[in-house]
Design goal:
The complex is a heterodimer of chains A (117) and B (112). Chain A is mainly beta and 117 residues long. Chain A has no helices and eleven strands. In chain A, strands 2, 4, 5, 6, 9, 10 and 11 form a seven-stranded mixed beta sheet that branches. A four-stranded antiparallel beta sheet of chain A has the order 1-3-8-7, with no helix packed on it. The chains are: A mainly beta (117), B mainly beta (112).
Chain lengths: 117, 112
């Protein structure tokens, strides 16, 4: 069964450093997403991406964050100048194009645990 | 704004049935999803409702009333492995694709 993959599984970085989190969405999916979950808190939407551009972003997704689809398979989240409060689990997700008013499930990757020290 | 409420935790007995409720208030609604999340793992899809009514998938069923802003997830024949957090999420309407707004999650403990 196809699945979303993410690397690395755990990233430790120092405050102020830049990190790039990588995701390979399911191959026939067209919509890509990043979510984060701070330990003990709810899953929060960060950004969605379609047709090589951002479709929507939350208030969390400020200038510190950027996303890119550098090739036909990878989808990345870059966090510039990391802060302590960026420590969280970051989930990538992907979905198919909705058909005729149907909703569509988002498939989540296993996540990257980011620890900022 | 948006508000999604679900109980923080529930306990049930192996073999029993449990109902997890979710109420929501949101501008823009394209469906309601239920995900299961084991500690330290990714959310996995269980069920979704776009229209009012009951959707059944094996041991899991989900119900939606759009007029009441209410949904529930019903788990039958509970197994120990069903101990997990159950996340209610609203799919918001916007131009292309969707974004899931999650509730806090209901931590379900299944006891022998």
């Amino acid at each position: 069964e196809p699945e979303v993959t993410q690397t690395p599984s755990h990233q430790v970085t120092q405050m102020g450093q830049e990190v790039i989190l990588r995701c390979v969405p399911i191959s026939n999916h067209l919509y890509f997403y990043w979510y984060r979950q701070i330990l003990g808190q709810k899953v929060e939407f960060l950004v969605s991406f379609y047709n090589n551009e951002i479709s929507e972003k939350s208030e969390i997704f400020d200038d510190q964050f950027s996303v890119e689809r550098p090739d036909g398979s990878n989808f990345t989240l870059k966090i510039r100048s990391t802060k302590l409060e960026d420590s969280a689990m970051y989930f990538c997700a992907s979905s198919e194009m909705p058909r005729g008013g149907e909703a569509y499930e988002q498939y989540f990757g296993p996540g990257t645990r980011l620890t900022v020290t | 704004g948006q508000n999604i409420d679900q109980p923080t935790e529930m306990t049930a007995t192996e073999g029993a049935i449990v109902q997890i409720n979710c109420t929501y208030q949101t501008s823009g609604f394209n469906g309601l999803f239920w995900y299961q999340q084991h500690a330290g793992e990714a959310p996995t899809f269980l069920s979704y409702n776009v229209l009012d009514g009951l959707e059944e998938k094996g041991r899991f069923s989900s119900f939606l009333s759009r007029s009441k802003g209410y949904s529930y997830l019903l788990l039958k024949e509970l197994q120990m492995k069903d101990s997990a957090s159950y996340l209610c999420a609203v799919d918001k309407i916007y131009n292309q694709g969707g974004k899931l707004i999650f509730g806090q999650g209901t931590e379900l403990s299944v006891k022998p």
